[in-house]
Amino acid sequence: MIPFGLDLPIIQAPMAGVQGSALAIAVSNAGGLGSLPCAMLTADTMRSEMIAMASQTRGPYNVNFFCHAAPPPDAQREAAWGALLRPYYEELGVTAAASAGGGRAPFDDAAARAVVELRPAVVSFHFGLPDEDLLRAVKGCGARVVSTATTIEEARWLAARGVDAIIAQGLEAGGHRGSFLSDDLTEQMGTFALLPQVVRAVSVPVIAAGGIADAAGVKAALALGAAAVQVGTTYLLCQEAAPSPVHAAALTSASSHHTAITNVFTGRPARGIVNRLMRELGPMRGDVPAFPSAYPAVAPLRAAAEAAGRGDFSPLWAGQNPSGCMTGPAGALTRRLAGL
């Protein structure tokens, strides 16, 4: 059975930094579940975007939040990170930025108040679940709670805490891993290995995510027991999405199929198209500041390079299967993914 009263078993993945409410509205109005990423939004912007979704959607919509613990300041580690990047600052003629927290905030009281007031149908979390009091507030307003699992153990952990559905995120998926019980990437599986095992391990609906880019992939996931499929990368070139010009260009280039999991942009593993920073520093490093504190040092380099039309220092998040990316309206893509 398709969850959340949806007409179509398609969920648009929340993609912070490359979309706003317009993409989510288009997907929800096509019969899928549109998702608004809130982790990088100010409180005022988050509220205005949620109000826009409530007023412009005919069906349910999802708002997504991060659940990471804000790391304590580590001046020594951040200084060493800045020193490692110094040659790039000198090359581009920019100055290092002071640490500003990374621009990604965990779910907190203010976000919970907005959820309780505006009552979205679905609230999803990445990196586990929020504190019990915050989670209780979300459930109390009638929202369905969803979170991401990258392993069977994480799926069982989420099910034991009463989530309404679980996203089984395969290693192919673009963007940040939703892992929270372990940071050992060798424990993670591909989508079609993980999905049936999670379906057997829990009694709540399971949503497949990672590497699914067309109707055939959706059909395969449903055949393996998924109640719905979450798709991200495939939506990035739709007219309602908002990737940077260099990100959009990368998705249509020959390099789009060369992705890797990296922590050099934010401090947490995420899959993106391989670029200069990933090649020269190595995609995964042990000396990167804790998530999300790594990003402020990279931000000036990204801005300077993008101003020159280059994505050398940009997090070009993408999954392993960009083949389904298409321009045009997201509603049409949603129906196409559902085989209509």
Notes on the protein architecture:
With 340 residues, the chain is of the alpha/beta class. The protein has two domains: 222 residues, Aldolase class I (TIM Barrel), CATH 3.20.20; 102 residues, no CATH class. Helices cover 36% and strands 14% of the residues. The chain has twelve helices and eleven strands. The protein has an eight-stranded parallel β-sheet. The protein has a three-stranded antiparallel β-sheet with strand order 7-11-10, with no helix packed on it. Strand 2, helix 2 and strand 3 form a beta-alpha-beta unit. The protein starts with 9 loop residues before the first strand and ends with a helix.
Quick structural gist:
By secondary structure, the chain is of the alpha/beta class.
Quick tags:
2 domains; globular; 8-stranded parallel β-sheet; TIM Barrel; 340 residues; alpha/beta; 11 strands
What's the SSE blueprint?
Layout (H helix, E strand, L loop, with lengths): L9 E3 L8 H9 L4 E4 L5 H14 L4 E6 L8 H18 L16 H10 L3 E5 L5 H9 L3 E6 L2 H9 L4 E5 L5 E2 L14 H11 L4 E4 L5 H9 L4 E4 L13 H7 L7 E4 L7 E4 L2 H6 L13 H13 L22 H8 L3
Parallel strand pairs: 1-9, 2-3, 3-4, 4-5, 5-6, 6-8, 8-9
Antiparallel strand pairs: 7-11, 10-11
Helix pairs in contact: 1-2, 2-4, 3-11, 4-5
- Provide the CATH top-level class of the largest domain: Alpha Beta
* Largest sheet descriptor: 8 strands, parallel
Order of helices and strands: EHEHEHHEHEHEEHEHEHEEHHH
Output the number of helix runs: 12
The low-confidence runs, each spanning 5 or more residues with pLDDT under 50, are: none
Overall helicity: 25-40%
CATH architecture annotation of the largest domain: Alpha-Beta Barrel
Strand order of the largest sheet: 1-9-8-6-5-4-3-2
